[in-house]
Amino acid sequence: MIVWKSKIIENWGKWSLANKIPIKPTRPLKEEDIGSIKEGSTRSVWMIDVPTSSGTFPVILKLYNGSKTFLKYYEWNVYKNLKDTRVSEFMPYFYDIQIDAENLEVWIFTEYLNVFGEKPKFKPADLYNITSSLARLHAKTFEHQPVAELIRRTVPEFQTERRNERLENIKGYLQQAKEDDFLKKVIEQYCPEIYELVERDLDFPEVIQSGKCLTHGDLHLGNICYDGQTIKFIDFGVATFSPCWLDVVKLVETILDNRFEEKEREIRDKCIRIYLDQMQQRGISFSEDPNRLYRMAYLMRVLEKELRRNLQATLRGKRPFVSQLVLKKISLFSNELHLI
Ligand SMILES: Nc1ncnc2c1ncn2[C@@H]1O[C@H](COP(=O)(O)OP(=O)(O)O)[C@@H](O)[C@H]1O
Ligand SMILES: [Mg+2]
C-alpha cells in the first residue's frame, strides 16, 4: 500500500512545483498541507494547501495510477494538446503534468476552482450560464473549426458500431427484466412502451448529422466549476468527438432531475433556446427542429448509457435500480416524437 502523502511531498520537490505555481511558498510542503478529496483504485484527487506569506494557496492534484492509465486517450492529453488553443479557457489551468511510466502513474497539478456541486444555492440562472458556456465550447470546437483536427487526434470519435452493440445489449436486458418482479413492475409503471420502442429504428441520423464537436460526456455539477464570471469544465476523462446535443441533454436533464423537477419543462425549453442562440451567434444552425433533436439525443444517450448501465448492474445484483425518472422521460419524449 503506497503512502501517497509522502510520495506527493517527494515529487513536489523533485519536479520543482514551487517554481511552477504563481506564488512563492514560505516553506517546504508537509503532510498536514495535503487533504484527500477522493480516493479510488485507479485515481485519487488531492487538495494541497501551499503555505504562503498571507495564508495558503490551493493546488489540486489528480493522480492516476495503474496500468489502465496508459491507454491512448486520456484526460491529460486533452489538457496538454489543447493548452495553446481557444479551448483552454474552458479548462482548469495546469501547473504541471508528469508521466511516471516506470510506476504507471500520471500526476496532474491544476488550479483550484469553485465546484458548482458545492454551491449552497444552485439557481436556474446558474444552469442558463453553464448552458451558454457549453454552447461556446461546442461552437469553438465544431467540426468545421481548424482545432477540430487536433481534437479528433486527442479524444475518441463517436462510433456508430459501438452504439448498435449497446442497443442489442439493452434489448437483452429488457427481456431479462421481464423475469424480475421488481424491474417488471417499475417498467410497467413508468414506461411500458419501452419494449416496443427498442424494436424501432433508433439510429437518429438527424442527431449525428447535426454536427460533432468536443463533448465532455459527463456533465454533472461535480464536474463544472466557476471562477468569478468564468465557467470551466473539469474531468475530461470520457471526452469524445461526438454529436453536440448528447452533451446538452446530459447537462440539462441531470440537473433537472436533481434540482428543479417541478419547473422542468419551462427550464428545459429555455436551455434549448439559449443553446441555440449561442450557436447561431457563432454561425452554427440546425436544419432539424432543435426540440426534436434534443429529445432524440436524450433517447440515444440514456438507452446507451444511463438506463443500459443501471439495468445491467441491477440484473447482476451490483446496484439498485434508480432510473425511474429516466424511464418516465423516455416515455414522455418518445410520445412527443410520435415514435410510439
Ligand atoms: N480544479 C479543481 N478545483 C476544485 N475541485 C476540484 C478540481 N478538480 C477536481 N476537484 C474535486 O474533486 C472531485 C473529483 O475530481 P474529478 O476530476 O471530477 O475526478 P473523477 O474522475 O474521479 O470524477 C470533483 O468533483 C471536485 O469536487
Ligand atoms: Mg468527476
UniProtKB/TrEMBL annotation:
Highest taxon of source: Bacteria
Family annotation (Pfam families): APH
InterPro entries given in the database record: Aminoglycoside_PTrfase, Kinase-like_dom_sf
SUPFAM superfamilies noted in UniProt: Protein kinase-like (PK-like)
Domain Aminoglycoside phosphotransferase: start-end pairs: 133-265
Gene3D superfamilies in the cross-refs: 3.90.1200.10
Name of the protein in question: Aminoglycoside phosphotransferase domain-containing protein
Organism of provenance: Siminovitchia acidinfaciens
